[in-house]
Amino acid sequence: MLTQIEGIHHITSMARDAQVTDRFITDTLGLRRVKKTVNFDAPEVYHLYYANGTGRPGTVMTYFPFPNIVAGRRGAGEVGATVYAVPEGSLDFWEKRLEEHGVTGLARETRFGETRLLFDGVNGDGFALNEMNDDAREPWNGAGIADDVAIRGFHSASLVLRDRRGTEALLSLMGYEPLAEENGILRMKRGGGNGADLIDLETRPDAPVARQGAGSVHHIAFAVADDAAQLAVRDALVAEGFQITPVIDRDYFHSIYFRAPGGGLFEIATNEPGFANDEDMAHLGEALKLPSQHAHLRERLEASLPKIGG
After folding, report:
1. Residues 58 and 154 sit within 8 Å (Cβ to Cβ)
2. N or C end of the chain: smaller count of CB under 10 Å?
3. Confidence of residue 66 (pLDDT cuts 50, 70, 90)
4. Cα 233–235–241 angle (5° rounding)?
5. CB hemisphere CA count around 11 (13 angstroms)
6. How far apart are CA 38 and CA 25, in angstroms?
7. Would you say 12 and 222 are in contact if contact means Cβ atoms under 8 Å apart?
């Protein structure tokens, strides 16, 4: 069993409208935009990052907003719900706030003894707010949401699978252990993790295969401390027969990618060097930052990309 994985690093989803998505994440949910850059492979499209005030791994939601993308189809082989942690007793505040902002799909449920509020993102993506006690991660309060109700970071992610066995074995290799099971859902936990250390495996044998589009999670990334830890994880996965990409420099972390047995795209990302790598911490997410290979496109991109705050 590997010991280097610390929990979720970030989750990346597909979107249609950059401005609508940015307002939803920053104004409605109250997260901080910590980086405004572009897709490495499609520089005419933003890559937007949202997190707590410091961009701490385990709090980071990112989006690729493709203006003409079709709607995604929910189903097996993807993250079905991205779940944020909020303080105990805060769901009344959030339900009222989301209603006032016109958010759809609001419903409460209890899972493994914890209360959560389900809701839809503006792209049709699945979200939930899960009450937690004693979450030490610092919130971002730039949107005027009080600290005692503000989002702390990820609580968990729910993977929808037709057959969980392969993904369960993979997560076990990655240091996750079964915690509890109910109603066809297995919860796995990375002990001593970064706070975003829960994964729920939802087995739905009859679920259609997910189709990528607006509202789909493109990939889920798991955190490791540094390059040495990442290479150790890569070697172990290769030894188990997984086809792993070379290490790719994403400016704010280093990444490797592979397909999980259930069909989802997994990434292992380093905590280093972080989002202050090219921007002062006090001004994260304000200026358009470009990967070096796309620096020559700045004038064109600044003219063509939709304007978002800052």
Report:
1. yes
2. N
3. very high
4. 105
5. 30
6. 18
7. no
Q: Which residue has the tokens 């890559």?
A: 47
DSSP assignment of 50-79 equals EESTT--TTSEEEEEE-TTPPBPB--BSEE
Read off the pLDDT of residues 272-293 as tens digits, 9 standing for 90 and up. 999 999 999 999 999 999 999 9
Domains and CATH numbers, the chain: 16-70+271-310 (3.10.180.10), 73-212 (3.10.180.10)
Q: What letter represents residue 147's amino acid?
A: D
pLDDT of residue 282: 95
The stretches of the chain forming alpha helices (DSSP H) are 18-23, 91-100, 165-173, 227-239, 298-304
- Quote helix, strand, coil % in the chain, to nearest 5: 20, 35, 45
pLDDT band at residue 310 using 50, 70 and 90 as cut-offs: low
Q: Please name which of 67, 229, 264, 80 lies closest in space to residue 158, comparing C-alpha atoms.
A: 80
Q: Sheet holding 78-87: strands in order across?
A: 107-111, 114-120, 126-132, 78-87, 153-161, 198-203, 185-189, 177-182
Q: Which two tokens stand for residue 149?
A: 């109700």
Please state whether the peptide bond connecting residue 273 to the residue before it is cis, i.e. omega within 30 degrees of 0.
yes
